[in-house]
């Protein structure tokens, strides 16, 4: 999926991509990644997602989704839940 332009209405593709990024960067099992739901808490609740891992997750999201994430956009709210991270990524996809 690297290098593919994702359309804004491809919410499923964005969700699948974010799930894959979390699985790959954090070393989650396939089963654990599949269990991620919109309300699943992330930062502060998932031990693998520490401040160092956040940078890797965001960089990988940029690469796989073809987006640019500015430092001032990164906050606790976007990392609060899996759904919040997917919504953030969906909003960043070029139109």
Task: Summarize this structure as a short list of keywords or feature phrases.
about 100 residues, mainly alpha, globular
What's the quick description here?
The chain has helices at 11-26, 30-34, 51-65, 82-92. It is an all-alpha fold.
Task: Give a description of the structure.
The chain is mostly helical and 95 residues long. Helix content is 49%, strand content 0%. It has 4 helices and no strands. Helix 1 packs across helix 3 and helix 1 (11-26) crosses helix 4 (82-92). The model has no long low-confidence stretch (mean pLDDT 91).
Taking the sheet with the most strands, its summary is: none
Shape, principal axes of CA atoms: globular
Unreliable sequence segments: none
Q: Could you give the distance between the termini?
A: 18 Å
Number of distinct helices: 4
What's the structural blueprint in terms of helices and strands?
Elements (H helix, E strand, L loop, with lengths): L10 H16 L3 H5 L16 H15 L16 H11 L3
Helix pairs in contact: 1-3, 1-4
């Amino acid at each position: 999926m690297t290098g593919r332009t994702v359309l804004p209405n491809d919410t499923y593709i964005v969700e699948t991509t974010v799930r894959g990024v979390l699985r790959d960067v954090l070393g989650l099992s396939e089963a654990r990644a599949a269990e991620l739901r919109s309300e699943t808490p992330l930062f502060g609740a998932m031990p693998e997602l520490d401040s160092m891992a956040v940078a890797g997750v965001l960089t990988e999201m940029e690469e796989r989704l073809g987006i640019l994430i500015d430092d001032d956009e990164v906050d606790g709210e976007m990392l609060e839940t899996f759904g919040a991270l997917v919504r953030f990524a969906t909003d960043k996809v070029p139109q």
